[in-house]
Amino acid sequence: MAEAYLKDQKAIMPAAAWLSGEYGYDGFYFGVPTVIGRAGIEKVVEVPLSDNERDALATSAGAVKSLVAGIQL
Predict the structure, then answer these.
(1) Beta strand pairing status for 11-20 and 40-44?
(2) What is the pTM of this model?
(3) % helix / strand / coil in the chain, to the nearest 5?
């Protein structure tokens, strides 16, 4: 990941990225495919998901939201 950043490789890698509508979610960090380059996370890559994958994503996103809500001051 550091090499992709330092060499501006525009590499596609999984990373925790701030979601702003991607995959239908908004306002929290979540592990998704991203493009990593000189600016860090330059883009969230949205890939087509099956219904089962979409359900699994919703379960995981719900867990992240619950965890974040539980630790906010």
Answers:
(1) unpaired
(2) 0.85
(3) 40, 35, 25
